[in-house]
Amino acid sequence: MFRKLLVPLDGSESSELALPYAEQLADRLDSELVLVHVFEDSEAAYRHMHEVYMTQMVENARSGVQSLRGQSGRTVSVQSVLLHGHPAEQIVEYAEKQDIDLVVMTTHGWTGFRRWMLGSVADRVARTIRIPVALIRIAAGHPVPPEQDLEAFKKLLIPLDGSKEAERTIPFVEQLASGLQAEVTLLQVIEPFYFTYSIPGDMVQLFHTPEEMQEIQSRAHEYLERCSRRLIDRGIQANTEVGIGTAADEIIKVADNLHALVVMSTHGRSGVTRWAFGSTADRVLHGGRTPLMLVRTSGDSSSS
User: pTM, whole model, 2 decimals?
Assistant: First the structure.
């Protein structure tokens, strides 16, 4: 499922901080690494510089994977691609045409050849691409990825809302958890309130009674237990957790506590809590602090 990983690089140190994460994934999942760099018309005269840069990045990535594999003798294929045009558009087009299985990129980048604002590039890629994308959050001033960030791949947090769309992340999680030997936590968030229309048609917010909350929580626990059995039957350590509050806030809080990679759908509806999962994913994308993998569900539009 994760045979080919794509890592966009813009020439900045920040974008290159995605490499240790991609190397770790390639090592554990036995994936091929493809490094991509995009330049525009104004940079055409400096193509040779871009080629030299990418040659060096390929060497660095090979060295990084080899250091993880030690003396095992197994190698990972690493190649580079130079593209011409708008960064986000070229990344998406290449990834979808070349059967890339996962894009791994940082959420911020600056300096480098073209001074991409990689935050906006990552945002556009995440919103338009049809394949999974893993976003590595890099704070300004980080010269290297903190070790605890790399440890995030040892724990996976899977938000579920009771919908089939959200559950489509589970096959991806199975592959990730098996390859990374990661512990999985399935999370469902219950909002303590609901909205209804009153006469003459105004929207009002009402809170569930304690009895209603107890019943909703009980159903949520049963639902998560059913979902977790699929993972447990495949030898994956899986836990369940029910949170109470606003979906995005609870996801971010639990992810921080676990220091976990969040794997979530970009769309979901219906189910127990009737999340507007597109907006939830958007809030986690922009407000979270741990790595995030977004999986676009079948039939989802290009907007979140």
Answer: 0.84
